[in-house]
Write a structure and sequence with these properties.
This protein has 298 residues and is α+β, with helices and mostly antiparallel strands. It contains nine helices and 16 strands. Strands 2-3-4-1-5-12-6 form a seven-stranded mixed β-sheet, with helices on both faces. It has a five-stranded mixed β-sheet with strand order 9-8-10-7-11. It has a four-stranded antiparallel β-sheet with strand order 14-15-13-16, with helices on one face. It is flat. Bound molecules: adenosine-5'-triphosphate and magnesium ion (MG). Adenosine-5'-triphosphate binds next to α3.
C-alpha cells in the first residue's frame, strides 16, 4: 500500500555504537553517498540507495511504515518493538534478515552482588527495572513468574540503589557497568548483535532487485570477514598432519607444484595466530602466507 519507489532507503543509527560500523559495512558493499547538509538524509551516488540517519529506536517503525526498506539495528531493539507490537495485537511488520557480526551484547537479568541467586522463582513479587519491558514480560510469562516490570528509558543500572527496583534487566557487553554498580548478571534473555532488518513482504517494484543485490553483497562481505586465505608449500607426507591442524579450514587445494613440494591453499575460517602458524611450520608447512579476504560472490 506504500507508494512505489525506485530508490532504496536504508535507516542506520545517526550517532552511537552502531553508527560507524553500519556505515562502513554499507561502504564495503559498494555504496557511497553525497552528504546532505542537515546530515539526516544522504543521497546515494554509486547506486540508488539512500541513507536515513536516525535514532536506533526509530528504525523498526520506519520499516513497519514503509518509509525505509532496510535498517541496521540491534536485535534487542527489533525484538523489543516486535514483542510490543504483538502484545497489542499488531501483525509482524519487519524481520531480521541477516546477523551482521558487530554490536554483540546480551540482554541479561542482573541482581545486587549480595543476592544469592537460586533461580527464576526468586523473582516472584520483585520489581525489575528495564528498557525492554515487552521482552522481559514475555520471558517472565513463559516461566510463569509474577514480577513487576518497571520501565525506565535510561540509567537502569542505578535503579536498585535508588530503591525504585530490586533488580534490573539490561544490555551487558563487558559487564563493567554492572560491576561498577554492585550488580551481577544471572540470566540471559537474549543474545544480540546488529542485524539487517527488512519488511516481511518485499516490495514489488524496482527496489526488489536492489534489495536482492545488496543482500548478496552483504553476504559476500560479512561471511568472509573472519576468513583468511592461507597458502604454503609442503611435502606430500606432511599433508595429513597439516590437515589435522586446520579443522576450521576448507579442504586443501593443490596448486601447480613447485619442484618437489606441493603448493597448497585453503580458506581458513578461524583465527590464524602466530602460534598456529608456528605450529603449522613445525608440522612441515613452508613459506606460509596469510591473505585477508575482502569480498566474495558465492
Ligand atoms: P540512540 O541515540 O540511537 O537511541 P542508544 O543510546 O539507544 O542510541 P547505543 O548505546 O548507541 O544506543 O547502542 C546501540 C546498540 O548497540 C544497542 O541497542 C545494542 O544493540 C548495541 N550494544 C552493544 N553493546 C552494548 C552495550 N554494552 N550497551 C548498550 N548497547 C550495546
Ligand atoms: Mg536508542
Amino acid at each position: 500500500n506504500a507508494p512505489a519507489r525506485d530508490r532504496l532507503r536504508i535507516a542506520i543509527q545517526k550517532n552511537g555504537r552502531l553508527a560507524e560500523p553500519a556505515r562502513s559495512l554499507l561502504t564495503a558493499c559498494g555504496l557511497s553517498w553525497r552528504q546532505s547538509r542537515d546530515k539526516l538524509f544522504c543521497y546515494g551516488e554509486s547506486l540508488p540507495v539512500d541513507l536515513l540517519l536516525v535514532r536506533d529506536d526509530d528504525i523498526p517503525g520506519l520499516i513497519a511504515d514503509g518509509v525505509c526498506d532496510f535498517g541496521i539495528v540491534g536485535r534487542n531493539e527489533l525484538d523489543e518493538q516486535g514483542a510490543a507490537r504483538r502484545r497489542i495485537g499488531l501483525p509482524d511488520a519487519y524481520q531480521a534478515l541477516r546477523g551482521l557480526n558487530f554490536g554483540q551484547c546480551r540482554l541479561m537479568l542482573a541482581v545486587p552482588d549480595e543476592w544469592e541467586w537460586t533461580g527464576v522463582e526468586q523473582l516472584a513479587g520483585k520489581r525489575i527495572a528495564t528498557s525492554y519491558p515487552a521482552i522481559l514480560a514475555d520471558w517472565l510469562a513463559a516461566r510463569g513468574v509474577d514480577a513487576q516490570v518497571v520501565e525506565l528509558s535510561g540509567s537502569v543500572e542505578i535503579a536498585p540503589r535508588l530503591g525504585t527496583a530490586d533488580l534490573i534487566c539490561d544490555l551487558v557487553s563487558s559487564g563493567a557497568t554492572l560491576a561498577a554498580n554492585q550488580l551481577k548478571p544471572v540470566e540471559t534473555l537474549l543474545e544480540s548483535e546488529a542485524v539487517l532488518a527488512g519488511p516481511v513482504k518485499t516490495p514489488d517494484d524496482a527496489r526488489a532487485g536492489l534489495m536482492a543485490m545488496l543482500l548478496r553483497r552483504l553476504d559476500g562481505v560479512v561471511k568472509v570477514q573472519d576468513s583468511k586465505l592461507l597458502m604454503f608449500r609442503a611435502a606430500l607426507d606432511r599433508v595429513s598432519e597439516l590437515t589435522r591442524l586446520l579443522p576450521d579450514a576448507d579442504p586443501l587445494v593443490q596448486l601447480p607444484d613447485d619442484g618437489g613440494h606441493l603448493r597448497l591453499q585453503t580458506m581458513c575460517h578461524g583465527a590464524l595466530t602466530w602460534q598456529r602458524l608456528e605450529d603449522l611450520e613445525r608440522a612441515g608447512a613452508q613459506g606460509l602466507m596469510v591473505l585477508s579476504v575482502e569480498r566474495s560472490l558465492a
